[in-house]
Amino acid sequence: MQFIKSVFAGIGQIMLCNNIITGILFTVGIFIGNLWCGIAALLAASVGTATAYLLKFSKTEIEAGLYGFSAALTGVVLIFLFENTLLIWGLVFAGAILAALLQHYFIQKCFPAYTFPFIVITWVIYFVISKFDLAQLNLQETNSFQSSTILLAGTNGFGQVIFQGYFVSGILFFIAVLISSPMASCFGLAASFAGVLVALMLGYSQNDITAGIFGFNAVLSAIAFAGSKKSDIAWALIVVVFTLLIHFVLISTQILSEVGGVFTFPFVAGCWITLLLKYSIRNSKSIN
């Protein structure tokens, strides 16, 4: 029973929510959006969590879901990007193990890796598959975001965090975060609309904008820095600005196209820069 709780906690941690109910709702939302992605999320999160148990990592960290979220994202994105084959499912399994091991390395170093293990592993797998033509891209999925009206673009940003373009999934993900942390859900929704606004000003396709693909990284960054203090609002604003800047620069230059795309790297990079800035200011005040 504790293993099952840890798996759903890991899926919840995709949006930094240590909440089993949130994880269950995320899982339901993924299944609604794409059956195979739902299976991949459960399988990968279970493999990542089992790896941590077998290697006797910290029980507290396992139960908090820290070894499931990068694994789950790796599983979902591989099924989302590539045609359903035995090789890809094997890579889902292997990728989940690697994600757990890499996550453990960063935890041991006390380094805030966020979803970086998922990003690195997916970049490497995508590059190798493309280089040696080992599998075909799932073009039907990657090119057919089920967008809706601009009013749903905010919650669609939540959906795209886990590569789901169906608006019902986005709404369910938003509700799941709301249950875990009302403050974080509000910060995330505002950040998602900030991405929409920037994309509109830059003249991107309205279908892509309403699908939420310009706001999902900002959603994660805002959730990571959400809080009730005035300083939390300021830092959340700063991290969203950094995240959106990195996101749009990477998209416009297509510099990461050979490794599959930006994924959640703008979120990770934006958070790292903001944490470094926050540390520098705090250190400067302590010296003075």
Supply database-style keywords:
single chain, 288 residues, mainly alpha, Ammonium transporter fold, 0% strand, globular
Polypeptide structure, described:
This protein has 15 helices and no strands. Helix 2 (20-33) runs antiparallel to helix 10 (167-180) and helix 9 crosses helix 13 (216-224). It starts with a helix and ends with a helix. Helices cover 74% and strands 0% of the residues. It has 288 residues and is an all-alpha fold. The chain has two domains: 2-140, Ammonium transporter AmtB like domains (Ammonium transporter fold), CATH 1.10.3430.10; 155-287, Ammonium transporter AmtB like domains (Ammonium transporter fold), CATH 1.10.3430.10.
